[in-house]
Specification:
Structural class: alpha/beta
Low-confidence stretches: 146-152, 346-359, 367-377, 401-413, 426-437
Largest sheet: 11 strands, mixed
Radius of gyration: 36 Å
Helix content: 25-40%
Number of strands: 15
Order of helices and strands: EHEEHEHEEEHHHEHEHEHEEEHEEH
Distance between the termini: 114 Å
C-alpha cells in the first residue's frame, strides 16, 4: 500500500471559516503528497455543514461523508455546490478530490478504465489516491490529530469510537470511477453506498467477479450524447467514423477497451444480481417520477440484500456537471443508507468471517495496534510457557521423590530382615550352648 501525507496539518473545524453574512462554511483545500516521492502532490476540497462543529450538536452527530468525484473537465467546487443542500440536511461532510490534468486540454479527469484522457493513457493510480491519499489521510488527520482546541479534541475523541460511513457519487468520468469503487472486492469498510450519474463501468466480467452487495442508485440521461445510454464501445470498420477522431461511438475514446456495448439498463440488472435481487423476469418495478420539468423512469430492485435503484431521466443530456435534477430524490435514499450503516455495519474481515463493528481504526493506528498486539501476545506466550514448565518440573520432581522414598524404604526393610536373621541365628547358638551346658 502506498503512503500519502498532508503537506500541512489541519484542524477540521478551525480550518473551515464561516463566510461573510452566510451560515455556510467556506470549503477548504487540503494538499497531500506521496511520502516516498514529494514531487507527486495532489489536493482535495472539504466542505462542512453549518452545524457540524457546534458544541451543542457535535456529540450527537455521526461521521457521515459524501465523496463527490467530478467529471472530465469539471472541478471539485462543482460537486460541492451540487450536493450542498443534501449534505446540510444529512449533516454530512463533502470531500471532493481533484483529478489529473490532460495536457493540451487543461481538463481534469480520472483513470476509470473506460474514461478519460491522460489519466487513462498514463495509467494513473487514482484509486490509490482517492482511497489512501484522500480518505485515509483525512480520517487519520481527523481522528488522530491532537489539537489545542478543546472542542476539536472532544470531537476527535468522539470519532475514535465511531465508524465513518461514506457514500461515493460522481458524474460522467466521476460516475465511471464511482462504479469502479463499488465493483472492487477490496473496497474499504467505510464505503457504504455509491451513486454513479452519467457514467458506469462496461466490463461485464467486473460485474461477474464482484460478490459483495452494496447500495447503489444509478442515474443517466435518456438523451445523453456523450456517454450513450446504450453503451460506448469500439466502432466497427464498416461503421462511419466519428468526426472528432474517437475510436468509439462516444467522444474522448470512451469505451475504447470494449468490443461490445453494455446499456445502462443491462448494467442495472447486473447490479441487481450482485445485490441478490429476485431473479425472475419481474425483478424490478418501474415508476414515472416528475421533478419539476424533468421526467424520469425509475427502476427499483425487488427483495434485494441492498437497495438497488436506477433512474433514466428521459429528456436529459450530459449536463450535470454543476446541477443535477435528482438531488432532492437522493436525500431520503442517502439518509436511509446512512442510518442502516450506523445501526448495523457488517463487513468482511481478512479471514472471510463477518463481524459487526462500529469503530474505525485509521491505517496508521492499525499498524501501531498490530505491533502492540504482537508484543502482548509474545509476553503472554512466555508467561504461559514458564507456568507450564514449572508445573512439569514440580510434577517430575514429585515423582522422583516418591521413587527415592520407596527405594530408601526398600533398603531399610532388607537391612531389618538381615538383622532379624542374625538375631535368630545368635539366639539359636545361645540355645545350643545352654543345652550343652
Amino acid at each position: 500500500m502506498s503512503s500519502w501525507k498532508l503537506k500541512q496539518s489541519k484542524s477540521l473545524c478551525a480550518s473551515a471559516t464561516v463566510g461573510d453574512g452566510k451560515k455556510r462554511r467556506r470549503p477548504t483545500q487540503w494538499d497531500v503528497e506521496r511520502e516516498d516521492n514529494d514531487d507527486v502532490s495532489r489536493s482535495f476540497t472539504v466542505y462542512l455543514p453549518p452545524n457540524f462543529c457546534n458544541d451543542d450538536t457535535s456529540s450527537s452527530l455521526p461521521l457521515r461523508i459524501l465523496l463527490a468525484i467530478h467529471g472530465f473537465g469539471g472541478n471539485s467546487m462543482q460537486e460541492i455546490k451540487k450536493w450542498q443542500d443534501v449534505a446540510d440536511s444529512l449533516n454530512a461532510i463533502i470531500i471532493a478530490p481533484v483529478g489529473t490534468e490532460t495536457i493540451g486540454t487543461h481538463k481534469l479527469g480520472w483513470n476509470a478504465i473506460d474514461c478519460c484522457g491522460d489519466p487513462v493513457l498514463n495509467e494513473i493510480d487514482d484509486m490509490d489516491f482517492v482511497v489512501n491519499g484522500v480518505m485515509e489521510v483525512f480520517l487519520n488527520e481527523v481522528i488522530n490529530s491532537s489539537s489545542s482546541s478543546s472542542s476539536s479534541s472532544n470531537m476527535n475523541s468522539r470519532w475514535k469510537n465511531m465508524q465513518p460511513h461514506v457514500i461515493a457519487t460522481g458524474f460522467s468520468n466521476g460516475g465511471f470511477f464511482t462504479s469502479l469503487m463499488g465493483l472492487s472486492n477490496n473496497r474499504p469498510n467505510w464505503l457504504v453506498g455509491i451513486v454513479p450519474t452519467g457514467g458506469y463501468q462496461y466490463d461485464i466480467n467486473a460485474y461477474r467477479n464482484t460478490h459483495q452487495p452494496i447500495p447503489i442508485f444509478m442515474h443517466h440521461g435518456g438523451k445523453d450524447s456523450v456517454v450513450d445510454p446504450n453503451g460506448c464501445c469500439i466502432i466497427s470498420k464498416e461503421a462511419k467514423q466519428r468526426k472528432d477522431g474517437s475510436k468509439t461511438n462516444c467522444p474522448f475514446d470512451i469505451g475504447a477497451k470494449q468490443e461490445s456495448c453494455q446499456s445502462i439498463e443491462s448494467v442495472f440488472h447486473l447490479w441487481s444480481r450482485i445485490n441478490g435481487c429476485s431473479s425472475d423476469d419481474n425483478n424490478s418495478r418501474s415508476m414515472e417520477e416528475s421533478d419539476g420539468d424533468n421526467l424520469s423512469k425509475c427502476f427499483e430492485g425487488k427483495d434485494c440484500k441492498e437497495p438497488t435503484n436506477f433512474c433514466m431521466w428521459i429528456d436529459e443530456g450530459h449536463s450535470w456537471g454543476g446541477t443535477f435534477p435528482g438531488t432532492a430524490m437522493m436525500q431520503p435514499w442517502m439518509q436511509n443508507v446512512f442510518v442502516q450503516a450506523e445501526s448495523t455495519k457488517i463487513f468482511e474481515q481478512g479471514d472471510g468471517k463477518k463481524s459487526t463493528n462500529k469503530s474505525y481504526v485509521p491505517t496508521a493506528t492499525k499498524h501501531r495496534n498490530r505491533m502492540g498486539k504482537s508484543v502482548f501476545l509474545s509476553a503472554t506466550s512466555v508467561l504461559f510457557g514458564f507456568i507450564v514448565l514449572s508445573a512439569v518440573y514440580l510434577f517430575l520432581k514429585r515423582r522422583n521423590f516418591i521413587k527415592s522414598s520407596t527405594k530408601r524404604k526398600t533398603s531399610l526393610d532388607q537391612e531389618e530382615m538381615m538383622m532379624l536373621g542374625r538375631e535368630i541365628e545368635m539366639n539359636a547358638a545361645t540355645s545350643r550352648v545352654i543345652s550343652i551346658t
